[in-house]
Amino acid sequence: MRYKMNACHDGAIPAEIMTVSDREMNNFMLVTRNGDEQLEYLTYTDFFEKEGRKVQIIDGVFAGVEGEIKRIKKDRCVVVTIKGITAVAMQVPFSQLKFI
Question: Which of 16, 57, 70, 88 is a Cys-bridge partner for 52, taking CB atoms 3.0 to 4.6 Å apart?
Answer without folding.
Answer: 70
